[in-house]
Amino acid sequence: MRNILLGLLLLATAAGATPVEINQIDQFRDRGFEYLDIYTTGFSSAKGLLLENKLYIDFPDTAFSKAVKIMKKKSKRIANVEISRKDPTNARLIITLNKAIDYDIVNVFGRNKTVIEISDRLDNILAYQFDWENKNVKKKGAPLKPVKFEALAAPSDISLKGKTIILDPGHGGDDPGAFSASGVPEKNLTLKTAQATARLLREAGATVYLTRDEDRRSNLKDVVEFANKEKAGIFISIHYNSTNNSGISGTETYYYNPVSRAFAESMHEAIVRGLRRRDRGLHRVRFYTVKYTDMPSVLLEPAYLSNSDENNLANSASFREEVAESIVKGVKNYFRSKLR
Ligand SMILES: [Zn+2]
Q1: What is the pLDDT of residue 150?
Q2: Model pLDDT for residues 38-53, shown as the tens digit of each residue
Q3: Cα(214) to centroid of ligand 1, in Å?
Q4: How far is the centre of ligand 1, averaged over its atoms, from the C-alpha of 204 (Å)?
Q5: How far is the CA of 299 from the centre of ligand 1 (A)?
Q6: Which residues make Cβ contacts (< 8 Å) with residue 123, sequence separation at least 6?
Q7: What are the sequence ranges of the domains in the chain?
Q8: Class assignment of domain 125-339?
Q9: pLDDT value, residue 332
Q10: Closest listed residue to residue 263, CA positions, set 212, 327, 168
């Protein structure tokens, strides 16, 4: 239902058109949901990004009218709604949240209105991941067998030249991870995704380690120890998500240490934009690899195997290629932002 009319944006941005303005924002509650109705003078295609307790809604090529009115309501979920005029070509709404939420955006064409729908987040994903990690670190795995891939001799671009990046495909061996609806285990999909990502990173000049390049389960302590000893620039753990509610779908990203925050934001934004799945947010969670690695590190969950649409996607090479491209984009954006 979200972004259904994205294609029609082209109509609204024809050359010479007066810039679209946001003139009113109404907050209200209806049947257990929280809504923000945002009224514009023309069609505007809003994009959201959920980073911990802040939900950013960006309206490209749109400005706030000088007389914009915000009708706020008291709310259990929303602590504050404010506008940012920092970038005159991109109107940004900053929603500060009191609790974990899910959200959806509908751009209503013809009525020049964008609707943000906010509900309580529905699941216990974190318990599942913690449970898996606890079992893994207690059980001796096969000795770690990381594989090093040098940068390609004549990379097509050199933006990651000199960088060392560790990719950690989740699960392996006697630990299949989540089973997808089609029966393909998570461990196969994480490995294929990591291999596709490694190829693209090497083409951009990076040296890449895979913590496994075969069907093999190692102990997470060994994975972390290896990453810290290697003094890699960044560490990326790749998983696919699963839950007992098949209606839940979307992209989640996790980090833990403050040194990882900027990297995690860059990764989450690139993957949400690249895959165009539901944005389930960037979250700070004490997962094992992101907690104990010394360098900026993230754990990625680009899609849900327990959702039939996303399971089909994760089982297609073209979608995994999009995941890989998005990861590389996030990595490049991160290193570029560090130069500024
Ligand atoms: Zn996993």
Answers
A1: 92
A2: 999 998 899 999 999 9
A3: 16
A4: 27
A5: 9
A6: 243, 245, 248
A7: 6-120, 125-339
A8: alpha beta
A9: 97
A10: 327
Coil, helix or strand at residue 317? helix
Identity (one letter) of the amino acid at 144?
L
Q: Ligand 1 mean position to 168 CA, how many Å?
A: 11
Give the three-class secondary structure for 108. strand
- What is the CATH class of 6-120? mainly beta
* Residues whose CB falls within 8 Å of the CB of residue 14, separated by 6 or more in sequence, listed in order: none
Maximum separation of any 2 CA atoms in the chain, in Å: 66
Q: Please give the average per-residue pLDDT across 266-277, as a whole number.
A: 98
Taking residues 282-296, report their average pLDDT: 96
Please tell me the distance between residue 120's alpha carbon and the centre of ligand 1 in angstroms. 24
CA 235 to centroid of ligand 1, rounded, Å: 16
Q: DSSP label at 257?
A: S
Kind of pairing between the strands at 62-71 and 20-30: parallel
Centroid of ligand 1 to alpha carbon of 329 (angstroms): 22
Tokens, residue 287: 């997962």
Tokens of 211: 């913590």
34 touches 264 (CB < 8 A): no
Q: What is the DSSP letter of 18?
A: P
Dihedral in degrees, nearest 10, Cα atoms 5, 7, 9, 13: -170
**Cβ contact 245:269 at 8 Å:** no
> What is the residue type of 250?
G
CA atoms within 13 A on the CB side of 193: 33
pTM above 0.85, yes or no: yes
Dihedrals phi, psi of 14, to nearest 5 degrees: -60, 150
Cβ atoms within 10 A of the Cβ of 113, count? 17
Q: Transcribe 131-189 into DSSP letters.
A: HHHHHHHHS--SPP--EEEPPPSS-S--TTTT-EEEEEE--BTTB--SBPTTS-BHHHH
Structure tokens at 7: 């294609």
